[in-house]
Structures are given as structure tokens and as C-alpha cells.
Amino acid sequence: MPPPRKGKTTWRQYDVIVIGSGPGRRTWPPSAARSWVVKTACVEGRETLGGTCLNVGCIPSKALLHASHQLHEAEENFAKMGLKGKAPTVDWKQMLSYKEDVIGQNTKGIEFLFKKNKIDWLKGWGSIPEAGKVKVGDETYETKNIIVATGSEASSVPGAEVEIDEKIVVTSTGALELGKIPKKMVVIGAGVIGLEMGSVYSRLGTEVEVIEFLDKITPTMDQEVSRNFQRLLGKQGLNFTMGAAVSKVETTKTKAKITYKLRKDDSEHTTEADVVLVATGRKPFTDGLGLEALGIETTKGGQVKTDGHWATSVKGIYAIGDAIEGPMLAHKAEDEGMACAEVIAGKAGHVNYNVIPSVIYTHPEVAAVGATEQELKEAGKAYKVGKFSFMGNGRAKANFAGDGFVKILADKETDRILGAHIIGPAAGDLIHEICVGMEFGAAAEDIALTCHAHPTYSEAVREAALACGDGPIHS
């Protein structure tokens, strides 16, 4: 057991050092502390803890999504409910201040957890000069185990001339702190980040045009959900240019000109905007760690290769989260952090990669877990589909949230749930009923026979499960 601490003394020898304080790191030391007595440290170069998620990703974007949705409700639905009065105006500086306050509450919470669990914060950017050592600034620390949890960073437009300045041409980071609300925004990429941030600014009055290389938005999503999602976003004011390859973005002091070619006929077009959001994906943030010199294997995409138990090709060095293969999701990193702690402690850490939900926090929300219908078809799997529209849900209709549906995919013979896809109110919360069911190997009938409170959105999930059998009640 380590000696008692005095003052702000920092150990130079540790059992575990984690590089990066994002979601993969947040749950790791407490998990390790429960498993075995460890001296733990975390390397973080930002002024605040929490990584991209808390500082410039998940949390601040959800704050702006929430605020802008409240504006939408006031403008579109309050009067329908008898709540009449002058529509609110947008104080952009105050909205950004609200966002910063939300960030501050969360990052300070992580600092509290560090102190509570006796975790040292090694402030600065880390590198690994050799196995068992981590260098931070001029200091080198010894450790038995190293966890690479450095997350990811925004990637640029492949094969295009695009220079990001975070003022006119921005990534999600710049989009969260624009000096003013733009009159027009072009979003390059119709993935999660682009659609969420596009929704925020569209609600605030910005003309939003989304340019996407492929012929559908959110390409990994169930195709039926994707089509409906694009239709609903179009009704909200987002304009889509599909099958278009951006080749160049030119900027002046206040504007940007975007040049793109339509893939169907190779015709060239241009459009202008006050702000261009580059949302073409993310890549592992591992620059400066020294992985190549250590002989740690990586993929063509830059992800660190691991052995299925988060161990790299160098003994004592592990990697989790966005730095390795798999969906770049905060909760995936958290699960891997906890499992990696168990493995290092000599226990059986496990992550069920078949039951990791994904959520898009637009309105309506979109959530999914498990296989899509297209994946089941390609695999030759016999399946059945149960669907239920939120237009048949009393709570949704009362709340002006009847758009969307629940779709459950179940094995045709065994009725075991293979996947679920929800577009509608609170989809990001509703999906977890299916996640728990899938973890226990549930059949659609198990959901269908479970009493659901009325009136709730969750009844739509039960109705979709019933539709996998004899049919929904309210249809």
C-alpha cells in the first residue's frame, strides 16, 4: 500500500498512468481502485479535465441543442397550448455563457472525483519514451502500466483544398464558440456532428446547407430510419445537397466559397456561406506519443492495434476509446476503461460490442443498437420486423412529438432481439430498454409482455415488440 500523502506531493512511480482525461479515463481510476490498491495518475494538457467530450464535444453541443430546442418550442408550440406572449429573442453571448457554465460544472466534477479517489493530475502533454515511462514536460514518471486514452480530433475533407481557421472554416470546436450567429452555414458531411450542429444553427435562424459525398445521410444507420430522418430535417429547414464531392473552400475576411462536383454527372457548382463547418469525421489523436518509435502497431486509419483485451504490441501499454478501432463514442470508451482496469487487475474485463447504442441528439432524436435491416439481409439472416409510429402514442401527440417510429428486428425462429432503431422523442433514453433486453438475450415477446406505464413514450417500444408477434394494440 502506498505511503500516506502529504500536501501536494506527486509520486514519480505509479502502478497506472492514463494519458488523456476524456470519457475512457473518467471511469478508469475508480474502477481500478475498487479492484486493487493502485497509485494512479492521469496526464492531461488542457486547462480542464474531461477531454473533448466535456470541453468541446458531447456536453457543450447538448447544451446548445437544448437551448435552441427551447426556442423552437416557444416559437412553434407555446401558442398552441395557450402560452401566449412575445416570442423570446436570442442573446447569443448569454447562450454561450450558459454553455460554458455547463462545461464548468462537469469539469469541476471530474476534478472532485480525482481528489476523492486520490488520483494525481500530471498537467501537460504526455509522451512514452519507453515502456514503463511517461514523460510530461521535463518530468519523467515510472509506471507498471500505461493506458493510451487520448481520444480523437477532427479530420479534414479528404482530397480537398480546405484550410481550417476555426473562424470561418471551423470544426465542431469552432462551431461551439462562433462570435455571432451566421446568416448562412454550409456543413460538409451529413454525419452525427454535422446534423447536430446544423440543427442548432437552423433553429437560431441560420440558413443551413448540408453537402454530403454519399447519397444518404448517416450512412451506417438503418436505411429506413435514414430516409425518414432526412425528410424530417428537411421539414425543419435544413437543405441537403447529396452525392457531392467538395474540392475546394476559399475564404475572404468574412465569407467562404465552396466548390463541389456532383458525382452523378461530374458537374461543378459553387455556393457561399458565412461559416463552413467541416464535419467529415474524426481521427485518433496520437501525435507526439512516440508510438512508432516504440514499435506499437497501428492500422491504416491511425488506430492503435490491440489484442482484444486492450493490450498493444508492447507489454504494459494498453489503449482504449477513440484511439483504437470501433465506434468513436464516449460510452464505448467508458466501458473499455472499466474493462481494461479489470484486465490489469487480473480479472476478466469484458465489453459487449454488439450492444453499444448510438444516439443523434437532434429533434427528434435518433437511436440504434444492434444490427440494421440491411446487415441482416446481407448476412442471409431470417428476421422479422416490428414497427410502431409515435403518431399512435398518446403522450407523443400531446407533446407535439408524433414524428418517427420504433423499429425492432427479431430472429424469425427464436424471436430473439437482433437490433432496434428509434426515431422520435427521447429515443436516446428509450433505446436502453432494448439494450438491457439484448444483454439478457431477450425475445421481442419479453418486451411485449412487460407492463409499461401509461402514458409514456416507452409504450411505443412495447407496441413495436408486439408488432413482432400478433400485432400492436393501438393500430
Note down, in words, how this protein is organized.
This protein has about 475 residues and is an alpha/beta fold. Helix content is about 30%, strand content about 25%. The chain has 15 helices and 22 strands. Strands 1, 2, 3, 4, 5, 6 and 17 form a seven-stranded mixed beta sheet that branches. Strand 21 and strand 22 form a beta hairpin. Helix 4 runs parallel beside helix 7. The longest helix has 25 residues, at about 90-115. It starts with 12 loop residues before the first strand and ends in an 8-residue tail after the last helix. Residues about 1-10 have low confidence and may be disordered.
Structural class: alpha/beta
Strand count: 22
How large is the radius of gyration? 24 Å
Shape: globular
- Overall pLDDT, averaged? 93
End-to-end span in angstroms? Answer: 63 Å
Ranges where pLDDT stays below 50 over 5 or more residues in a row are: 1-10
Counted by DSSP, the helix tally is 15
Strand proportion, as a percent range, falls in 15-25%
